[in-house]
Amino acid sequence: MTTKHEQILQHILSLEIGHKISVRQIAKTLNLSEGTAYRAIKDAENQGLVSTIERVGTIRIERKKKENIERLTFAEVINVVDGQVLGGRKGLHKTLSKFVIGAMQLDAMMRYTEAGSLLIVGNRVKAHELALSEGAAVLITGGFDTNDDIKQLADEKELPIMSTSYDTFTVAAMINRAIYDQLIKKEIVFVGDIYTPSNQSYYLYAKDKLKRWYELNDKSTHTRYPVVDEKERVAGMITSKDIIGKDQNILIEKVMTKNPIVVQDKTSLAYVAHMMVWEGIEVVPVVDASQKLKGVVSRQDVLKALQQIQRQPQVGETIDDVVSRNLQAIEGDETIFQAHVTPQMTNQLGTLSNGVFTALMTEASSRVLRHIKKGDLVVENLTVYFIKPVQIDSNLIIKPELLEAGRIYAKIDVEVYNGKKMVGKGLLMAQLIDR
């Protein structure tokens, strides 16, 4: 039997793309409370089934394919540029393939404007009409409106015509930034990318007898299994430690570990890796919003994915990528590093930002551990002293020294020099992940 939450999600999936959704309407249609409807709609938004747009409301959208994540929908463009929709609301779910800045003659502009593109233009009504006729959406800059017949054409073509108070080139920069952010997100690995679905993994029911664990163990050679209730919601975990000395006819629910740590498919790989090291867990159940089992993710899955990431080229560059690229080992010594302070690494005063300073220390420490212990680190605690400000274009020397290193624990002292002067010092404590 489906839960109320699942009923609402199924109802949303049955709606046409572009259909407007409200909490009150969903609650009334399905005879449920508005609180339940609100939570389910928020979950649908997280799953990419709906999008909420200011001054428009929540609309049903087409879920993006992973390979198109770098493309923005027109609904996302509206949110990026803080705009409003003048017409063609039913097309907000569509994605733009490219955008064209309309700062040219009409005939030249139309050579670049094609179906699926977005024309960014000012108060030029003829350009609005020609773009819509070609199958392109329109974003009007400078806060201008357009004619009613243009709005009607947008409705007929189901192509959005939108307006924003920003100027043309500011809008182009904002959209470029949003696309770049999407590229960075594309590189972030989530549990949903690597977990083993429940139809390909093994699990037990709470009402099964313990002998069922032995049957699965013979079949799979695994020793850890999620335990679910009659509705397939995760109720516990059972491992070989839980069954030692127990009667094989006892119920699983009597010996399982209750309230286990679970994750969802949108949980990042980095978080899961940290948690597995921190808690000493080998297998984590993956659940949906109603705690129903979707699959499992193992430590082996996580380690394989982490190794794969290190081999992938970077497309969208984060500040950690900038730090990593600028940090080089000194020739002849793999434990001392140098870094050049670029403009991207500074704050508004032109000095090295505290966040980048910390990232340099962490990255240098991580590389030393890889060199000495052949392992990666998960930072547990970091104490940093910023002794002197570091100017732009400075050349830093970073010296991490391994003070203590156990099987799963390490303590590292880090000193940072600009020339012969010490500009910073840190003490880092971390847990180790064996490679």
Q: Descriptors for this entry?
A:
CBS_domain-containing; CBS_dom_sf; 6-stranded antiparallel sheet; 435 residues; repeat; Udp-n-acetylmuramoylalanyl-d-glutamate--2,6- Diaminopimelate Ligase, Chain: A, domain 1; CBS-domain; 4 domains; WH_DNA-bd_sf; alpha+beta
Notes on the protein architecture:
This protein has 435 residues and is an alpha+beta fold. The chain has four domains: 4-60, Orthogonal Bundle (Arc Repressor Mutant, subunit A), CATH 1.10.10.10; 66-187, Udp-n-acetylmuramoylalanyl-d-glutamate--2,6- Diaminopimelate Ligase, Chain: A, domain 1 (3-Layer(aba) Sandwich); 192-307, Roll (CBS-domain); 317-434, Hotdog Thioesterase (Thiol Ester Dehydrase, Chain A). Helices cover 37% and strands 26% of the residues. The protein is built from 16 helices and 21 strands. It has helices at residues 4-14, 23-30, 34-46, 74-80, 106-112, 125-133, 148-157, 168-187, 191-194, 211-220, 240-243, 252-255, 269-279, 299-311, 319-326, 354-373, and strands spanning 20-21, 50-53, 57-60, 84-87, 99-101, 118-121, 137-140, 161-163, 196-197, 204-205, 225-228, 234-238, 257-258, 283-287, 293-298, 327-330, 333-340, 375-386, 395-405, 409-418, 421-434. It has a six-stranded antiparallel β-sheet. A five-stranded mixed β-sheet has the order 4-8-7-6-5, with helices on both faces. Strands 10-11-12-13 form a four-stranded mixed β-sheet. β10 (204-205), α10 and β11 form a beta-alpha-beta unit. α6 (125-133) runs parallel beside α7, α13 crosses α14 and α15 crosses α16 (354-373). It is flat and about 80 Å long.
